């Protein structure tokens, strides 16, 4: 979570990213895709995938690494003002890195099972909570389309109520920042769709469900439920 109130920004970001930060740390890197750039066509073009992954995600990673280097220096110097000043960069670039890392895993080509949600605990939970997958997608699309500016639409597990929820986050804010476990993210930034859909983002939101990797989403749901029950 990127709240940065009770512990250092570096250690909070480290927990979100799945590793801790120390005086000597390894740099964040852009994860490789599990598929070729063109696998998501015609829903998302190879050109968008290459730009989105190799340029945009790489920019967040570079910004995050730079901010963390400055943070470590500020911590070593006991410069509290500098540490506070770095919080926006850590939040924005850290969120961009974490959100996109989830996003790539959430996608898969139609020929490899994209859009297919088979019988599982997640399917049952979706039907119990929203009525059907179609109603869930309509809700996510409506909430995501209503974002003013850039942001993300999320299917999440909310530990507070022990079930599924649909939320949105602004810019690169993470679902974890409001206590939710992200399961499925829809990138509503223009760079995610504009080359293919121009200003008709509603078509992008409609079509992206054809390439959702429900196996990945279901695994995230199972892990979230198991952690919640063990708490």
Automatic annotation (TrEMBL):
Q: Which UniProt keywords apply?
A: Antioxidant, Manganese, Metal-binding, Oxidoreductase
Q: What InterPro entries does this protein map onto?
A: Fe/Mn_Superoxide_Dismutase (IPR050265), Mn/Fe_SOD (IPR001189), Mn/Fe_SOD_BS (IPR019833), Mn/Fe_SOD_C (IPR019832), Mn/Fe_SOD_N (IPR019831), Mn/Fe_SOD_N_sf (IPR036324), SOD_C_sf (IPR036314)
User: Which parts of the sequence bind Mn(2+)?
Assistant: 52, 100, 187, 191
Superkingdom, according to UniProt? Answer: Eukaryota
Gene Ontology cellular-component terms listed: mitochondrion
Q: Name one Pfam family in it.
A: Sod_Fe_C
> Which residues are in the Manganese/iron superoxide dismutase C-terminal domain?
121-220
> Is Repeat among the key words of this record?
no
Q: Which GO terms describe its molecular function?
A: manganese ion binding; superoxide dismutase activity
Name the protein family: Belongs to the iron/manganese superoxide dismutase family.
Function summary:
Destroys radicals which are normally produced within the cells and which are toxic to biological systems.
| Descriptive protein name | Superoxide dismutase
Organism, per UniProt? Answer: Coemansia javaensis
**Originating gene:** SOD2
């Amino acid at each position: 979570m990127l709240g940065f109130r009770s512990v250092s920004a570096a250690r909070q970001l480290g927990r979100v990213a799945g590793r801790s930060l120390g005086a000597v740390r390894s740099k964040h890197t852009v994860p490789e895709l599990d598929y070729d750039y063109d696998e998501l066509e015609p829903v998302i073009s190879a050109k968008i995938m290459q730009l989105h992954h190799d340029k945009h995600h790489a920019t967040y990673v570079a910004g995050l690494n730079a901010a963390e280097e400055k943070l470590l220096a500020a911590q070593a110097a006991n410069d509290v003002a500098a540490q506070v000043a770095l919080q926006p960069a850590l939040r924005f670039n850290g969120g961009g890195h974490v959100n996109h890392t989830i996003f790539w895993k959430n996608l898969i080509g139609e020929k490899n099972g994209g859009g297919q949600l088979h019988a599982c605990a997640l399917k049952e939970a979706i039907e119990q909570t929203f009525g059907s997958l179609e109603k869930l997608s309509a809700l996510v699309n409506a909430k995501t389309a209503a974002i003013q500016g850039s942001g993300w639409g999320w299917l999440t597990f909310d530990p507070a109520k022990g079930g599924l929820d649909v939320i949105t986050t602004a810019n690169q804010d993470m679902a974890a920042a409001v206590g939710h476990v992200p399961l499925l993210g829809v990138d509503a930034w223009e760079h995610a769709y504009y080359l293919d859909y121009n200003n008709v983002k509603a078509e992008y939101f409609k079509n992206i469900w054809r390439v959702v990797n429900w196996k990945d989403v279901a695994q995230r749901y199972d892990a979230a439920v198991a952690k919640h029950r063990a708490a």
